[in-house]
Automatic annotation (TrEMBL):
GO molecular function: actin filament binding; ATP binding; microfilament motor activity
Pfam families: Myosin_head
PANTHER family tied to this protein: DILUTE CLASS UNCONVENTIONAL MYOSIN, ISOFORM C, MYOSIN
GO cellular component: cytoplasm; membrane; myosin complex
Myosin motor domain span: 1-304
Protein name stated in the entry: Myosin motor domain-containing protein
Family listed: Belongs to the TRAFAC class myosin-kinesin ATPase superfamily. Myosin family.
């Protein structure tokens, strides 16, 4: 951080923000009945609130309740269940961490920038490729589907540029060549993304349906893709699962929690709270959050 010119106050604020995220991740919720919950270890939340520079009571509200804007009826406050509160905690942590990453990239660009008169003389750049590898665990959920889908797209890009485009170029220029056989994963990508019945599209659709559920989502994808060679029903011992045959091999996915994980659970209340932080570093990062409308933000993580 010193190497890119960060001063002491910037480094301290960045590390303070990291510490706050770690404390936030330690917060645990317990059910109080009737789809409501409370924080069972308030000390961790107090530390997080202090480090974030926000009010403890407001942070508690953001994690355990949600304000709904109902046309013609004003604002309505609804309580979150235990599982929903954990999702809200994780969504807030991820959002802040992502904003920190963007800030660091911007700060690196600022440090490497040159004056207008020097632009034609000096060019400085840095490229970072940070991707997940293919994942197969004992239990695979929505996170693994997103990661493996990203790897499918990377494999598709590699195939297109290494094989397809090169062969088209050779053919256009009349150059004799020997065809190189490769596994084309385009059908796999179509299974996930082709509208309107791709698996990710059906998941987004199920999220917005009032009575949508993980089980109904599973029934829909089985109904629409049971004949697809890249799709299989889950083993009998895992009733709430399905199998996708990726280019790297088959993966069994458990649909439990798919809908909730796919929702963008970061609420306007959370954005507003971060905007009012007493820590200038955080307040600056989220200074435009009040102007971020539902239209600006993708409604599901799958779309993002």
């Amino acid at each position: 951080m010193k190497a890119i010119g960060m001063d002491d106050s910037e480094r301290e604020a960045l590390l303070q923000c990291v510490a706050a995220i770690l404390h936030l991740g330690n917060v645990v919720f317990e059910s109080t009945g009737d789809k409501q919950c409370q924080v069972s270890n308030p000390q961790s939340l107090e530390w997080a609130a202090s480090l974030f520079g926000v009010d403890f009571e407001r942070l508690t509200f953001v994690l355990t309740k949600r304000t709904l804007k109902i046309r013609g009826q004003g604002d309505t406050c609804v309580s979150l269940g235990e599982d929903q509160a954990f999702d809200a905690r994780d969504a807030l942590s991820k959002f802040i961490y992502a904003a920190m990453f963007d800030w660091i990239v911007s700060r690196v660009n600022q440090s490497m920038s040159v004056g207008p008169g020097e632009a034609s003389k000096v060019t400085r750049s840095i490229g970072i490729l940070d991707i997940f590898g293919f994942e197969v665990f004992e239990v695979n959920s929505f996170e693994q589907l997103c990661i493996n889908f990203t790897n499918e797209r990377l494999q598709q890009f590699f195939n297109a540029n290494t094989f397809k485009l090169e062969e088209e170029l050779y053919a256009a220029e009349g150059i004799a060549f020997e065809h190189v056989s490769f596994v084309d994963n385009q059908p796999m990508v179509d299974l996930l993304t082709q509208k309107p019945l791709g698996i990710m599209n059906l998941l987004d659709e199920e999220v917005v349906i009032p009575q949508g559920s993980d089980t109904k989502f599973l029934h829909k994808i089985v109904e629409n893709h049971s004949s697809n060679v890249n799709f299989k029903t889950g083993p009998k011992s895992q009733a709430d699962s399905f199998v996708i045959v990726h280019y790297a091999g088959p993966v069994v996915y458990d649909v439990t929690g798919f809908l909730e994980k796919n929702r963008d659970t970061l609420t306007p209340d959370a954005l507003q709270l971060l905007n009012t932080s007493g820590l200038p570093f955080i307040a600056q990062m989220f200074s435009n959050s009040d102007n971020m409308t539902a239209k600006d933000r993708k409604q599901t993580l799958g779309k993002q």
